[in-house]
């Protein structure tokens, strides 16, 4: 047991984390939309991987890529959406946070949920069936085939 060395290791680890955080905040200040996209993709990927592993007992990287790609596409919109809400109700007090959260859930929430489900279904189906044309062509051809049969 050598406390001095352990302290040195912890100190080195803390300096490394502080340096990474500092670089991230500089990147975020310079490229806020790109930072939002990257952060969203990483958080969504980690969250989906943990849910898959916990609930299904295995990890599907294809599903993870589909789910994370949705976050990359929607992050710019939500970055600017939340900035708009911050402009309307500035601050982090309870009243401002509640107003922003309720507005987000009432306005953007339903569209986000529907879009996420549509995106996930479309992209997973397209990837699993073997891409043949664009995802839109794939969905439209299969959808119209189903409608014509009925």
Structure description:
The chain is mainly alpha-helical. It has helices at 3-30, 32-56, 61-88, 94-128, 135-149. The longest helix is centred in the last third of the chain and has 35 residues, at 94-128. It starts with a helix and ends with a helix.
Number of helices: 5
Beta-strand portion reads under 5%
Runs in which pLDDT lies below 50 for 5 or more consecutive residues are: none
Determine Rg (CA atoms, Å): 21 Å
Q: What is the oligomer described by this structure?
A: single chain
What's the end-to-end separation, in Å?
A: 75 Å
Order of helices and strands: HHHHH
Number of strands: 0
Structural class: mainly alpha
The 3D shape can be described as globular
List keywords for this structure.
150 residues, mainly alpha, 5 helices, globular
Topology:
Layout: H1 3-30, H2 32-56, H3 61-88, H4 94-128, H5 135-149
Helix pairs in contact: 1-2, 2-3, 3-4
Please sum up the structure shown.
The protein is an all-alpha fold and 150 residues long. The protein has helices at 3-30, 32-56, 61-88, 94-128, 135-149.
